[in-house]
């Protein structure tokens, strides 16, 4: 879906996805960043709300997948799974950020729609 949105909304949509990288620096930052943006903008801009919600759902899904990978690291299968998950997350966040910058919606693959 393509929206007629302002440049500010496009920037906030991009920020919604880029905040997912905050989890590499701050514990739970990948979830708290999009959640904060979603709670602030959900009634003001449907475009930003959609992107923040989608980013939040994806970050919750990948967080859960990472939690499943950690015990598997004990039997060594979790290490390549965790690395693959990190690469997958980075690629998908970049694709979503590009879609937001172009004013398009983006649906993450393999994402649980919880919010």
Beta-strand content estimate: under 5%
Q: Helicity level, as a percent range?
A: 55-70%
Q: Give the biggest sheet.
A: none
Instruction: Give the overall shape, derived from the CA principal axes.
Output: elongated
Total beta strands = 0
Q: Over the alpha carbons, how many angstroms does the gyration radius reach?
A: 14 Å
Low-pLDDT stretches: none
- Overall pLDDT score: 92
Elements, N to C (H/E): HHHH
Total number of helices: 4
Structural class: mainly alpha
- Terminus-to-terminus distance: 19 Å
| Count of discrete structural domains | 1
Describe the structure.
The structure is a single chain. Helix content is 66%, strand content 0%. The two termini are 19 Å apart. It is mostly helical and 115 residues long. The chain has helices spanning 7-18, 29-41, 46-72, 78-101. α1 (7-18) runs antiparallel to α2 (29-41) and α3 (46-72) runs antiparallel to α4 (78-101). It has 4 helices and no strands. The chain has one domain.
